[in-house]
Amino acid sequence: MPASAREATHAGSWYSASELQLREQLSSNLSRVHPIPELEYDPPVLDSKAIIAPHAGYSYSGPTAAWAYASIPVNKIKRVFLLGPSHHAYIPGVALSNFKVYETPVGDINLDLKTIEELKSTGIFSTMKSSVDEDEHSLEMHLPYIRHVFKNKKDLSLVPILVGHPKSETLDELSKVLAKYWKDEDTFFIISSDFCHWGSRFSCTPYYPHAPPPPNPVPPVPHETLPASFGPPDLIKKFTSSHNNPRVPIWKSIQYMDHEGMDLLRHPAEEGAAEKWEAYLDRTKNTICGRNPITVLLHLIQHIYLTKPDSAKPVFTFVRYEQSSKCFDGKDSSVSYVSGVLRVPH
User: Fold this and answer.
1) pLDDT (mean) for 294-319
2) 104 burial class (0-12, 13-18, 19+ CB within 10 angstroms)?
3) Contact, 139 vs 192, CB < 8 A?
4) What PANTHER family does the entry give (predicted)?
5) To the nearest 10°, the Cα dihedral for 115, 120, 123, 129?
6) Residues 277-296: tens digit of each pLDDT
7) Angle of the 273-284 helix axis to the 250-265 helix axis, nearest 10
8) Would you call 90 helix, strand, or coil by DSSP?
9) For the stretch 284-322, what's the b/e string if a residue is b when 16 or more beta carbons lie within 10 angstroms of its beta carbon?
C-alpha cells in the first residue's frame, strides 16, 4: 500500500516554511515576469506543453523559475508529470513515488495514483524508498510553485518521476509509455534541472578562453556583435590561472557553454537532436544535473514528432538565464539557472 504523505523536508531551509511568506515570495517572483515580444512570449503561453525550470534554494533560483511557471496554461491542465534527477541515490532507471500526497506549506498536492499504478504495471519503473523521496530536492523545489500557480484547482494531480541512469532501450520503452499521457491535452510536463555547476567544489572547471558572445542570448543576456571570424572556440577542460583571458572572465565562458546547450535543445524534434545533446554533454562535461530528465524528454519528443512535418514540431523558447554569482578566478563557484518553455503548434 502507498505511504500517506511526503513531508516538505526542505521547508524552513531551502525555502520558507511559512505559508504567508512563501506565497508572498512566489507571488512577487511571478509579478516580475513580463512579456518578451521578440520571443513571442506573453504568459500564459497557451501552446506550451512542458517547461524546464531550476530547483535550487528559492533565494537563488526562485526568480528564474517564475519565468517558466508563468507560462503554464493552468486553466486547461489537470495533471502534471514532474521529472527530476536523483542527487543522493543511485537509480539505474526511473522510479515512482510510494506516497499518496506531497505536502507543501501552501497546500498539499494529490498524486495521480491510478496513473502511477498504470506506469508500475509496465515493469519499467522501480519504486523510490520513502527516505530517497523525502531527501530529493529536485522534485520538492517545484512543489510550492506547482501548488501556487494551480491554487484554484484542487483536483490537480501529480505524477513525480525520479530519473536515474536509464539505458537507451529503457528510454525507448519509456517514450512509448509516456506518449499516451503526452497526447492528453490536460497533461503538462515539468523538467527539473539546474545548468552548469562551476567550481572546484563541483569538480567542474571548464573554460573557453576565447568564448564569443552567445549567438542566441537568453534574457537578460544582452545581444552583442559576434566576431567576424566566429567559430567554435577551444575548450580547456580544467581552468588554471595561466589560461585566464582578462577579456573573457570565467562567468562569460560559463554563459557561452550553457547557451550552447540551450541552442541544441531549441528544436528537440529534429533528427539527431538527442545524439547532439549527448555529444555536447560528453565534450564539455557540463554539469547540468537534470541532463537525464532532459534526455528523457528529448527521446519522448523524437518518438512522437520526428516524422511529422516541421510545422507540427515543438520548439523550446528559453526566456530566462541567470547565474548564482559571477566567477572571476579558480576559487569562485556558481550555479546556472534556466527557464525554457516547450511550445507545440496546434
Assistant:
1) 97
2) buried
3) yes
4) PROTEIN MEMO1
5) 140
6) 999 999 999 999 999 999 99
7) 160
8) coil
9) bbbbbbbbbbbbbbbbbbbbbbeeeeeeebbbbbbbbbb
Residue keyed to cell 519528443:
301
The yes-or-no verdict on residue 39 having pLDDT over 80 is: yes
Backbone angles phi, psi at 149, to 5 degrees: -75, -25
44 preceded by cis ω (within 30°)? Answer: yes
Q: What is the set of domains in the chain, with CATH numbers?
A: 3-198+290-343 (3.40.830.10)
Residue type, 291: R
Percentage with pLDDT > 90 across the chain: 93
DSSP line for 157-191: EEEEEEE----HHHHHHHHHHHHHHHT-TTEEEEE
The pair phi, psi for residue 207, each rounded to 5°, is: -155, 130
For residue 325, what is its C-alpha cell?
Answer: 554569482
